[in-house]
Amino acid sequence: MKKKKNLNIAIVGLGNIGSSLYRHLIKNRENIKKKTNVNLVVKYVSAKNKLKKRKINVPKNKWLKNYLEAAKHPNVDLVVELIGGSDGAAKNLVYNAVKNKKHVVTANKALISKHGDELSKLAEKNQVNLEFEAAVAGGIPIVRVIKEGLITNRIEKIYGILNGTSNYILSKMSEKNMNFNDVLQDAKKLGYAESNPSADLNGEDVKSKIQILSSLAFNSFINRSKINVEGIKNVDHTDIQNAKILGYKIKHLAIAELKKNKLLQRVYPCMVANDSYISNINGVLNAIIIEGKPIGKFTIQGEGAGPGATTSALVSDICSILRGNIKHPFSIPNQNRKKITSIDISGETFSSYIRLDVIDKTGVLSSITKILSKNKISVKRLIQNPFKSKKFASIIIISHKAKNSNLVKSINELSNKNFVINKPKFFRIEEI
Predict the structure, then answer these.
(1) Residues 93, 73: contact at Cβ < 8 Å?
(2) pLDDT per residue over 198-242, tens digit each?
(3) How far is it, in rounded angstroms, from Cα 94 to Cα 131?
């Protein structure tokens, strides 16, 4: 598509982010023109509820009766999709927009992680942009960094904190010694957590993001198989305090790495050393670390969510299109992207933290160490803390490195023992 002096945009979805974007584009129209040499026009908008009260005033002539009009209208050059969800209206809109040779900018990580390969091929065929900087890590320009800034690097590992809600909860639990549910309610009041934050808490949000980053980093098609995903709902303030004593913090990390040219992806809460960079990323901040050659170790952090951060990323993509940058959505032509065999974590080795609340009686400790020994797990450190009642005790174990499959097997065996009074707690220790 040839670069135009005027470019008409349709924004579909006018929630907090859509409203923020509309307001920003109207306010900064002249500034955008100076930097791109293109006159940007917000031509149309569409939303599920036109009558909803918003902090923006949209003229009546800008409203589309049906959201799909944005994908077909002859006076629309670029569609911004802010509906959300991996299928339904969002997919329908983006698919039809690209099919009709309109550029698309989206913040929808679920859509890109599920349908990005298909949509990327269609965008290339129709020579339009499909941009999704805002889908990963909010205002952090990590997509553009990988696609352009690190274009000749061989990336070997990418990891970090990719969800501000979960990071805020774990940070406050650590700082204030609060339990999970109390911090969650606090996060909702402050607007850091949605009324239904399940995708943030169960790891699905982060899963989509690391899949997108993996594809970009390793020049591969999106790989959705054998990825280990765990959320933060089972993190207890007791374990957070124990981690402090032991010299660790609990962080919810997403990690993707190449191991003998095979892809290992995982998302879970884990323990990291207090002196590691990632352990000091707190609150709603996100942080991403890339290891590769020749760059070495590259780190970037910033606001991972919210209207301001997301608007910044959306505008960045829009301005890139205004400058006439027709790029491959995943950095390289689809024909050059590769399929990478994925592996799961069962054969990987980790040190681990294990907490067992048990009946305090003779023979319990011996039974525990026997199970661990049978599964080839050796104890590096052991602490026994009696409960106030003195009838029960909490046994904390730091293991030497062992196969993940053996660690999981041990935890399952211990869960079924009648001397264990609560579900065992288990966190891997990541050396990053």
Answers:
(1) no
(2) 999 999 999 999 999 999 999 999 999 999 999 999 999 999 999
(3) 11
Query: Parallel, antiparallel, or unpaired for β 6-12 and 39-46?
Result: parallel
Question: Residues 132-158: what's their mean pLDDT?
Answer: 94
pLDDT of residue 51: 84
| CATH architecture of the region 349-429 | 2-Layer Sandwich (3.30)
Peptide bond into 294 cis (omega under 30): yes
pLDDT digits (tens, 9 = 90+) for 271-305: 999 999 999 999 999 999 999 999 999 999 998 87
Q: Give pLDDT tens digits for 310-320.
A: 999 999 999 99
At 138 the pLDDT is 86
Every domain of the chain and the residues it spans = 6-131, 142-304+339-343, 349-429
Give catalytic residues, as residue numbers.
209
What Å distances lie between residue 116 and 152, 212, 215, 266, 424, CA to CA?
23, 8, 10, 20, 39
Alpha-carbon torsion (75, 81, 83, 88), positive or negative = positive
Residue found under tokens 């935890």: 411
- How many angstroms separate the Cα of 38 from the Cα of each of 6, 10, 25, 253, 324? 6, 16, 13, 40, 10
Note the CATH number of domain 6-131. 3.40.50.720
Phi–psi pair at 116, nearest 5 degrees:
-60, -40
The alpha-helical segments, DSSP class H, found in 29-155 are 29-36, 69-72, 88-99, 109-126, 142-144
Domain spanning 142-304+339-343: which superfamily? Answer: Dihydrodipicolinate Reductase; domain 2 (3.30.360.10)
Res 4: pLDDT: 64
pLDDT at 219: 96
Q: Phi and psi (nearest 5°) for 425?
A: -105, 140
